[in-house]
């Protein structure tokens, strides 16, 4: 079997597998069925827009991982995974694709039996976008000797501390999102149709920056204006942008699936006092939160410091103010592990990267001034240099 060069060395993939197996051993698992495409990529290097059909990486306690997926995607696996053995890529027949008469997990169950992995404890990612109730029920029905355990997040938590190679990709993504924000400032103007602006943002993101290409984001640009910006996750339409309205842009630069999200707010015309007060509160609270971003602190320490400062200014934020980021696929660029909120006792360690997300939604609009932040031995390192302020034109 021939491959192109995966994004990381064999040694890095082997180290990731060793960390994952150590956690599997602690939980008494003999096999992990990994269906989250981000986790599949992190373990093997596999990269393809194939998560709309059933696919998985099987990780036993010994030997190479096994990629399993649709037959026509087998060559894509051979082009991207680090494994060399032909036995490590197992395609299934296309008659299993979206066929109400049979389910692809019947093929996976047969593979597990064939490899002799059907009599132990099997971990599955139960609370995952890509692992359906029907998929689980089919496996249970066909693997009577196996015992299933919920392994949701098992791989995700091993991804929390980034390697130097991963950080290189995230720094490249940071340069890309900086460029995307510059493009917004250059081309946005009252009367411009929102879809035209989003097209320019997307173009800049894919063109990349500093000679490094841009990958597709796990989340499309969020760019609501005016009252639409009182909601957190609206996208765009063709309405023209207007003077006297705020628009926030929640976007990410992406390189080799590694995301660096950053948000800024643009206002056409004179900024109302409410927005200036909110800006001052957010910036002050951001500094308070960042002061807690050092090794040994807890995730909740960051949130508590942020919220205390924000509340003193007369504002409240009733949702988390950040989360871990890194490698991801649609529909979410978060890693679904650490959250910056009260009660999250995750210890911060060097190499963790978070999207510090102190967004506020006001009565007539929204304000987002966010930062991707790396935890280092010496404290927080914002990955971007985009000015931390409301942009005004």
UniProtKB/TrEMBL annotation:
**What CDD domains does the record tag this protein with?**
APP_MetAP
InterPro entries in the record, alphabetically? Creatin/AminoP/Spt16_N, Creatinase/aminopeptidase-like, Creatinase_N, Pept_M24, Peptidase_M24B
Q: Which residues form the Creatinase N-terminal domain?
A: 16-161
Q: Which residues form the Peptidase M24 domain?
A: 170-377
Put simply, this protein is called: M24 family metallopeptidase
Native species? Roseinatronobacter domitianus
């Amino acid at each position: 079997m021939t491959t192109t060069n995966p994004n990381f060395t064999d040694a890095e993939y082997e180290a990731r597998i060793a960390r994952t197996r150590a956690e599997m051993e602690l939980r008494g698992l003999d096999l992990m069925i990994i269906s989250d495409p981000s986790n599949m990529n992190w373990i093997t290097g596999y990269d393809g827009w194939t998560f709309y059909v059933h696919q998985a990486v099987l990780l036993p306690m010994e030997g190479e991982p096994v990629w399993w997926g649709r037959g026509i995607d087998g060559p894509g696996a051979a082009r991207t995974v680090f494994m060399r053995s032909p036995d490590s890529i197992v395609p299934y027949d296309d008659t299993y694709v979206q066929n109400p008469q049979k389910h692809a997990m019947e093929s996976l169950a047969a593979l597990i039996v064939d490899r002799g992995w059907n009599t132990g404890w099997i971990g599955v990612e139960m609370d995952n976008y890509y692992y359906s109730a029907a998929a689980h029920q089919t496996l249970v029905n066909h693997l009577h000797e196996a015992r299933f355990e919920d392994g949701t997040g098992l791989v995700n938590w091993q991804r929390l501390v980034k390697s130097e190679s991963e950080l290189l990709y995230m720094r490249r993504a940071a340069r890309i999102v900086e460029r995307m924000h510059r493009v917004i400032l250059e081309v946005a103007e009252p009367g411009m149709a929102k879809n035209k602006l989003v097209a320019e943002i997307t173009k800049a993101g894919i063109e990349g920056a500093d000679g490094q290409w841009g990958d597709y984001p796990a989340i499309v640009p969020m760019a609501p204006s005016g009252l639409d910006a009182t909601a957190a996750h609206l996208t765009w339409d063709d309405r023209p942008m207007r003077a006297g309205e705020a628009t926030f842009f929640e976007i990410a630069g992406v390189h080799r699936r590694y995301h660096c999200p950053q948000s800024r707010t643009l206002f056409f015309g004179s900024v109302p006092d409410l927005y200036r007060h909110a800006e001052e509160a957010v910036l002050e609270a951001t500094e308070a939160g960042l002061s807690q971003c050092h090794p040994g602190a807890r995730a909740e320490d960051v949130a508590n410091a942020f919220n205390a400062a924000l509340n003193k200014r007369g504002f409240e934020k009733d949702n988390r103010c950040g989360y871990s980021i890194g490698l991801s696929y649609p529909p979410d660029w978060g890693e679904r592990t650490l959250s910056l909120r009260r009660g999250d006792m995750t210890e911060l360690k060097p190499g963790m990267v978070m999207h510090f997300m102190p967004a506020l939604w006001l009565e007539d609009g929204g304000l987002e001034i966010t930062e991707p932040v790396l935890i280092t031995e010496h404290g927080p390192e914002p990955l971007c240099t985009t000015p931390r302020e409301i942009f005004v034109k």
